[in-house]
Automatic annotation (TrEMBL):
Domain of life, per lineage: Bacteria
GO biological process: one example: carbohydrate metabolic process
Protein name: Cellulose binding domain-containing protein
Single annotated GO MF: hydrolase activity, hydrolyzing O-glycosyl compounds
One Pfam family in the UniProt entry: CBM_2
Segments forming domain CBM2: 148-258
Keywords: Signal
Length: 499
């Protein structure tokens, strides 16, 4: 590559989100000199980038702690006074986030001026606009208060246009959006009318331009504008500006989550009831975990780990709606950023809970990828309790139409009667044993979703059980042996009706 002014290339490394074992990071490359083409960048770090979880570049080689990356198609060229960004997920080293060192662009270590932005506990998105030097900012600004109605809430934001530079054949401008909603503004887009042709834009994307009617949407790294935050994107275009952008129309989704502020970790939520309602739209945050190797073993629901191909169907719910394991086995429809961009919602089943979250889900990595890009790390989601149809096949290979599945517990014996249920259309409220005299004895729900008969008296052979869902529906499971020490599943054929 032939490059001038290589000493004017600089980088910035920042951490966007982090979780217990890893983090999402952003490496910005700014070109303050002449055009850069067909570049590569190398750096040293003890962290390991997760396979397939890098965006904006490809890994050419990794030898020990030395990485060499090359650009992808859209950023092979970095124009003068422009930049590009590389995003990736990586592991922590001994519980710490380590920054890359010895960053070199095209084997010229003197070309890099490196800035390290220290990681923080919550999302950090460094919005960098490279302003032209030795030019006065022209103070031509539109200051508009936008109120746009969405499904449930109003979007209140200030949208400002500033003409940074104006000359006969072109211009540079920037637009800032200040989120005044009091919640997180997610998946935003901005419409406006502007007669000038925009030929370059950064920190945003042009979704549509129909004869000067623009639709501008977020970039991959700034989908969310938190409460009170101001986001700015810049652009250049043709011809001198004689008529500024007008008719601003801001769209997006507003989220008021308990875990939306300083930390995603919360233990109380006054706005969320523990009892689930069918079809009610809930809002919250979503993160992801390795469901194939859960840190807590099988998870609080006690279900087996699904096959790799079925991991996209399972999640851990928050500590409020877990409700003493009552949510175990429940099915939810989930929508995230990808669904707000047009993808179909996904269906997941609760198999665990996240004790330090008071809204939303900790999703399997495979489920998270269906609602958001893994680089996002933490996203806003909508979710609701649903009733799967008879033909829905769960992560454990049974269709709902086959009926409730009794999971065997190999520790049971005549003096320890216990049962665990799966494949039920709705969450379970209670399980009762029918005695020989026709009376009902309620089994106690334990923390790992077992229903246990209290009392030190023996049971032998099959027993009839009455299972009640959270809506009061009851089914009877006949001749179920809950003391035989077997881990085999029993497919009952009995299922709750659709409410």
């Amino acid at each position: 590559m032939q490059t001038s002014n290589n000493n004017l290339i600089r980088t910035e490394f920042s951490v966007k989100t982090e979780w217990e074992q890893g983090f999402s990071a952003r490496l910005d490359i700014f070109n303050e000199g002449e055009i850069v083409e067909d570049w590569t960048i190398e750096f040293q770090s003890e962290f390991e980038i997760k396979p397939g979880e890098i965006w904006g570049a490809e890994i050419v080689s990794q030898e020990g702690d030395l990485y060499i990356l090359k650009p992808v198609d859209y950023n092979e060229t970095i124009d003068s006074q422009q930049g590009t960004s590389i995003f990736f997920n990586a592991n922590k080293v001994n519980g710490e986030i380590l920054s890359p060192t010895s960053i070199v662009l095209n084997d010229d270590s003197s070309a890099i001026k490196q800035t390290i932005i220290e990681p923080v506990e919550e999302e950090v998105v460094e919005q960098t606009v490279i302003e032209p030097i030795e030019e006065e900012v022209v103070e031509q600004t539109i200051d508009s208060s936008i109120t746009e109605t969405t499904t449930e809430e109003e979007i209140e934001a200030d949208v400002n246009f500033t003409l940074v530079k104006n000359w006969d054949s072109g211009f540079e401008g920037k637009i800032s959006i200040t989120n005044n909603t009091g919640g997180n503004l997610d998946s935003w887009s901005l419409e406006f009318d502007f007669p000038n042709q925009i030929n370059n834009i950064w920190d945003a994307e042009i979704e549509e331009n129909a004869d000067g009617s623009y639709v501008i949407t977020h970039a991959a790294w700034n989908r969310e504008i938190v409460a009170g935050e101001t986001l700015t994107f810049g652009f250049t275009g043709n011809n001198s500006v004689t008529s500024e952008p007008q008719n601003f129309d801001l769209d997006g989704s507003v989220f008021n989550s308990a875990s939306r502020s300083d930390s995603i970790y919360t233990y109380s939520n006054d706005d969320l009831e523990s009892e689930l309602e069918l079809g009610r739209e809930y809002q919250g945050r979503a993160t992801f975990y390795d469901a194939a190797n859960p840190a807590g073993g099988l998870g609080a629901s006690g279900y087996d780990v699904p096959m790799q191909s079925e991991l996209h169907k399972v999640v851990a719910i928050n500590n409020i709606q877990w409700n003493g394991s009552e949510a175990s086995g429940g099915f939810f429809e989930v929508s995230g950023p990808k669904q707000r961009d047009g993808a179909a919602p996904i269906t997941v089943q609760v198999v665990d809970y996240l004790y330090e979250r008071a809204d939303g889900f900790d999703m399997s990595a495979e489920a998270f990828e269906k609602v958001a890009d893994p680089i996002d790390g933490v996203v806003n989601i909508e979710y609701k309790l649903i009733a799967p149809g008879d033909d829905y096949v769960t992560a454990y290979g049974y269709s709902i139409g086959q009926g409730i599945v009794v999971e065997g517990i190999d520790q049971t014996n005549p003096y320890y009667a216990a049962v665990r249920l799966n494949n039920h259309r709705y969450p379970i409220e209670s399980v009762d044993l029918i005695t020989n005299g026709g009376n009902l004895v309620q089994l106690e729900r334990e923390s790992d979703n077992r229903f246990v008969l209290e009392g030190n008296y023996p049971l032998y052979g099959g027993q009839d059980l009455v299972v009640t869902d959270i809506f009061g529906q009851q089914v009877t499971l006949d001749d179920i042996d809950i003391t035989n020490g077997s881990s085999a599943d029993i497919v009952t054929g009995e299922q709750f009706e659709l409410v």
